[in-house]
Every structure is written in C-alpha cells, then in structure tokens.
Amino acid sequence: MNGAVSLILILAGIALLVFGIQSAESLGSQLSEFFTGSPTDRTVWFLILGTVLLIFGLASTTMRRSRSAD
Q: What is the per-residue burial (b if ≥16 Cβ within 10 Å, else e) of 13-45?
C-alpha cells in the first residue's frame, strides 16, 4: 500500500477510537449501559472500526518497510 494511504488509515483509526471513547462517556451511552449492561451500538462500532483501521494502517506500514529492506 502507498505510504499516504497507510497514514490516512492510521489517522482515521485514531479519530474513530477518540469518537468511540467520547461516545462511551456520553450520558446516553451511560444510561444505556446502566439499563442494558452494554454500551450503545454506535459506541461499539466506533471502537471496532477504529481498531481495525489502526491495525490495517500499522500493518501496511510495517509490510511496506519490510519489503523495502529486501
């Protein structure tokens, strides 16, 4: 993958994780967690997608570096 795409994936992953953490601390999510025992679906999706994008971005950066070392 191109280095710019890797950087965009990493930044998007970090942004989604930040949104997910902020969403988890919101009043709506706290009320949902109080009554249902789990956070809102929106919070969970932000955290999952943020983690996936961050992992793909870091993996593509690492693979690109290992290929250039050969």
A: beebbebbeebbeeeebeebeeeeeebbebbee
d(CA 53, CA 6): 9
Give me the domain span that covers residue 36.
3-69
The structure's pTM equals 0.81
Structure token pair of residue 40: 């809102």
pLDDT at 70 over 70: no
Which tokens go with 66?
């290992």
d(CA 34, CA 31) in angstroms, rounded, equals 5
Distance CA 10, CA 54 (A): 5
Number of domains making up the chain: 1
